[in-house]
Amino acid sequence: MRVDVVTIFPAFFDVLEVSLLGKARGAGLLDVRVHDLRDYTTDRHRTVDDTPYGGGAGMVMKPEPWGLALDAIVADADAGDRPTFIFPSPAGERFSQGTARELSEASHLVFGCGRYEGIDERVFAYAATLGDVRLMSLGDYVLNGGEVASMAMIEAIGRLIPGVVGNPESLVEESHEDGLLEYPSYTKPASWRGHEVPDVLLSGHHGRVAEWRHAQRVERTRERRPDLLPGDLEA
Ligand code: 6GU
After folding, report:
1. Which CATH number describes the domain made up of 179-233?
2. pTM score, whole prediction
3. Which end of the chain has fewer CB atoms at under 10 Å, N or C?
């Protein structure tokens, strides 16, 4: 998968070099390229923002540098390639494990990281002439810009690309894959600082272990995330 990121803070993405996704890049499964939006400005001050039409607080990101940056990315991609453009925004649709799965099948994603009060709305309309456009929110809170949100989405999507996570079975029983939270995990020692591993896990009885884990998943989902439960498991 090819991933381009447009940002005024490229250094945020240095961390992609390390850990799982760093390995995926090394193995050629993930080709991430980070672009500095200021490289696409044309004035001496490398200006990326201006005051909002209609008045109001804050600054808006100017469309021209975005247009040039998106053009450069598309010009550098394979002929006929129509990327999916993702603009992180608290005003976007909610990003979920389902969205991550869907986007992990794409061949080319472009993340556009906004700062200030946002990006001139016409940038989204222009991007829609080049490919699909998704405004995506991580949740109901506000971050300073799209960088941290893009990192989270790149990690959630990247780990679903075949070969990135070594054992694909470890992806199956995770929270949010089937609508229930994950069961609790334990390792040695069986007794630690007065806290015991549940007996059933030491029993060697696979059927009872599976039953216990399922019950734990339902119970913690009911306690912590009742909004995830289908009607017949609620209350
Ligand atoms: Cl995707 N962006 C920003 N700026 N804030 C957010 C967010 C995204 N998701 C939740 N808060």
Report:
1. 1.10.1270.20
2. 0.94
3. C
